[in-house]
Amino acid sequence: MYFKLAWRNIWRNARRTAIILTAVVIGVWSMVLLGSLMRGIAVGMIKNGISTLTGHIQIHHKGYRNDPAIENRIADSTVVENALKQALPEGASWTARVRVNAVASNARHSSGVTLVGIDPASEANVSFIGTAVSQGRYLNSDDRNGIVIGEALMKKFDTRPERKLVLMSQDTDGEIASRAFRIVGIFKAEMEATEKQFVFVMRQTSQKMLRLGGGISEISILLPGKSDNPEVYHRLKAALPSEQFEVNDWRELLPFQTAYLRILDGFMWIWYLVVFVAMGFGIVNTTLMAVFERMREFGLLKALGMKPGWILREVLTESFLLLVTGMIIGNILAFICIFSMARSGIDLSALAAGAEYAGMTRVIYPAIALKDILISNLVVLVLGILVSAYPAVKAARFNPVEAQKHTCLLYTSPSPRDHG
Known about the structure:
The protein has 420 residues and is α+β, with helices and mostly antiparallel strands. It has 16 helices and twelve strands. The protein has a six-stranded mixed β-barrel. It has a two-stranded antiparallel ribbon with strand order 11-12. α10 packs parallel to α14 (370-396). The longest helix has 39 residues, at 255-293. Residues 407-413 and 415-420 have low confidence and may be disordered.
């Protein structure tokens, strides 16, 4: 009975109902849509960070992260490889790299880069480079002098595939080592800074150039399933001597992205509060107006024996139906917008410099998190019922006699005798 009466009552004044519904729809729509965009930024940043030579877990020689010099290399990786065989779950991939600072130059230009020596087959399973080549081809086992560079670096050096590029770095003896490479491929990354920073050569070639022997700089691991797997992380830390090796997960390796994740939930709560405050004032004012216009009705119902609690329940039921209807429409509109943007994303290429400064990818794809949707809808429903309680209590406290008198004074027009 309450739901039937409430549904009929809210449509007695269609204009007022439309105003409240519009406020609720806009509030829910903005909460869900902004939440998906913020979550999409976080997912893109983390995914790009993990694929850009980070992986889920990395193993270095102790002190390498503070001083990534060639002296802090892993001279013998046998111990690490044995630990990986025991600790990694089925489906995990790993690769060994040489990673040092270098200077790239050609006849016209020179620039600081990061020289990365890779095993092409294993590297393709861990990082982005295996599928990022846009011109030429990827490295293979026969490319002893082949190199893959980024598209932005190619434009900066005014070069192209099949041309030469000279790399210089410091070897294990402290001497300057240099070698000429032929460009076999050009890669394109999510961030232009990545294209300018990294150049890829064969690991054996880089080891020979730097006189490393079998030494490597790091081992990167990509785990199956979720990015967080504390069990594998702790098993590796326990298996490797801490005085010789460092084991870090992606949260430690990507501090900016980790900080963004920490403030994301707080920012979402602040946004929910701002939207609801604007929406809540509209709900209270409109509902209170509707209650005072129905003073005679509520007074008559109390005179006929309706208890105050029943009137309170009736008004709250009307508010509940309005909120639920608005939430349904708002969620539908939000999902339509999300799925329409999910096809092509939001292209920030025109703002590439600013986006990269913030660690964002060039294209943002919205991501739906069940937690965000539930929280935004619960905030609207629960707080909407709470702010509607004040008008409902006012309606329940109306005195029948005073309600009839107030209505008479409100609607009785002055007679001609009063004008005289």
